[in-house]
Write a structure and sequence with these properties.
Order of helices and strands: EEHEEHHHHEEH
Distance between the termini: 82 Å
Largest sheet: 2 strands, antiparallel
Oligomer: single chain
Helix content: 55-70%
Length: about 190
């Protein structure tokens, strides 16, 4: 088998030049192997790097979107909270959903968190108002005292949970408990 053919003496390339005969199976296989080698050494790492950058960009974009979604979901859940609870609750001593949502809102920048708690206080049920008061006590004591003062004549009832005990207290009593520091250990 021959990989090249000598050119004729009268060719434009001159004497002693040879041209490669690319129509033989061996040459085609060699060319394919060289192309694959080039692809493996140059293109595949570039392709993998592009995949990594695309994955990083996707994570960044989805993290921002997720954080916005998680805050709005937390606010929706807190608006209709079934109980006001901090610390371990229930038979399994787990953290209540309301406390988890409370901490999500507390992780916002101070101004945004205050605005969220103000909105929660205005639109939420008595349990939600309790979480809003807890957040405002931590972030804006003056506003907390104003709201606490306005609750002196309130007869709203709050479902509270402490450990395995579910009870009912007035929103005024919950505000007094918050002000006394009863929940400070957990409301951070």
């Amino acid at each position: 088998m021959r990989f090249y053919q000598p050119l004729r003496e009268d060719s434009a390339f001159g004497e002693g030049c040879a041209r490669i005969a690319c129509d033989t199976p061996e040459i085609r296989e060699t060319n394919l192997q060289n192309w694959l080698l080039g692809y493996r050494t140059i293109m595949r790492p570039m392709k993998n790097a592009m995949k990594r950058w695309a994955a990083v960009a996707l994570v960044i974009v989805s993290t921002v979107a997720f954080s916005q979604d998680s805050i709005s979901i937390a606010m929706q859940r807190m608006t209709t909270a079934k109980v006001f609870a901090f610390g371990a609750v229930g038979f399994a001593a787990t953290t209540s959903e309301g406390e988890i949502d409370f901490k999500i809102v507390m992780s916002l920048p101070k101004e945004k968190a205050i605005a969220a708690f103000e909105k929660l206080y205005g639109t939420g049920n008595p349990q939600a108002k309790s979480y809003a008061l807890a957040g405002l006590r931590k972030l804006d004591r003056t506003r907390f005292r104003e709201l606490r003062t306005s609750l002196r004549s309130s007869d709203l009832k709050v479902q509270t949970e402490s450990g395995c005990v579910i009870s009912e207290q007035s929103l005024r009593e919950v505000a007094n408990d918050l002000d006394s520091g009863k929940y400070d250990k957990w409301a951070q």
